[in-house]
Write a structure and sequence with these properties.
Layout (H helix, E strand, L loop, with lengths): L15 E5 L4 H12 L3 E6 L2 H8 L5 E5 L5 H15 L4 E4 L14 H29 L2 E6 L12 H22 L3 E8 L5 H6 L3 H10 L8 H12 L10 E4 L5
Parallel strand pairs: 1-2, 1-4, 2-3, 4-5, 5-6, 6-7
Helix pairs in contact: 1-8, 3-4, 4-5
Length: 252
């Protein structure tokens, strides 16, 4: 699809947007997508060289380096971004890692680390930015889920459990924050063809199996997740909250 045909949302111009895990994969495209809308984008990530290279591409992109599993460091990084850009009225909880693991080999320590990597930071990012949204009179929070557990996908029980829990987090926070006109939604990607997925798991057999599961025959590029997130961040989605928005090609 010609990306010039995608929508521009005037309500996003000049807004402050925070994104977790912005230096690679879907997060990288999210940063670029919001910057192209004229938003002021701050992102956090652990990878310094990738983060700096992305920040150097546009004057309205900046970043902080932090380990998302360290909640004090995460909240300090978001606070630093707010001091430079102003409080965020859009938060995209994107960061995650879908490493495969055999259920028989999982230890309590590994389980805890997977939930810290894929779930815990989402709540504490919300806790950090929500007061600024309340003061601003509203905002939009988009949590990244996954359809892996909808499909009863195997091979990563801690990841699937984390992503299933994202839906509960979204709905309860939508209730708690809705009175302040803060919308909270989940975007649910299918198997998205990031470079990491292509390098690690996208064998010809796996890709053909994925096509068979989807109603639509095309593999899903990251840009389509970005477009859903951008819509939910915009004022066009002003009355959308507490819901799941699927970007998975009709996968079953």
């Amino acid at each position: 699809m010609d990306q010039a045909t995608f929508a521009t949302y005037p309500s996003l111009k000049g807004k402050t947007v925070f994104i977790t895990g912005g230096a690679s994969g879907i997060g990288f495209e999210l940063v670029r997508g919001f910057a192209a809308q004229g938003a002021n984008v701050g992102f956090v990530d652990l990878h310094e060289s990738n983060s700096q290279a992305l920040s150097d591409t546009a004057v309205n992109i900046t970043h902080e380096i932090c380990d998302l599993t360290n909640i004090d460091a995460l909240q300090a990084a978001l606070t630093k971004l707010a001091s430079r850009l102003g409080p965020a009225t859009v938060l995209v909880n994107n960061a995650a890692n879908d490493d495969r693991h055999n259920w028989q080999d999982v230890t309590p320590a590994y389980w805890d680390e997977r939930l810290q990597t894929n779930l815990r930071h989402q709540f504490f990012a919300i806790q950090c930015v929500a007061p600024g949204m309340i003061a601003a009179g509203g905002g939009s929070i988009i949590n990244m889920g996954s359809n892996s557990w909808h499909e009863t996908g195997g091979g990563f029980p801690a990841y699937a459990t984390s992503k299933a829990a994202v839906h509960g987090l979204t709905r309860t926070m939508a209730r708690d924050l809705g009175q302040h006109r803060i919308r909270v939604n989940t975007v649910v990607p299918g198997w998205i063809m990031t470079d990491r997925q292509k390098d690690l798991w996208a064998t010809p057999e796996a890709l053909e199996s994925q096509r068979q599961r989807q109603c639509l025959p095309d593999l899903i590029e990251p840009i389509y997740v970005v477009r859903m997130v951008i819509f939910l961040a915009s004022d066009d989605a002003f009355m959308c909250s507490a819901n799941n928005y699927m970007v998975e090609g009709g996968s079953i």
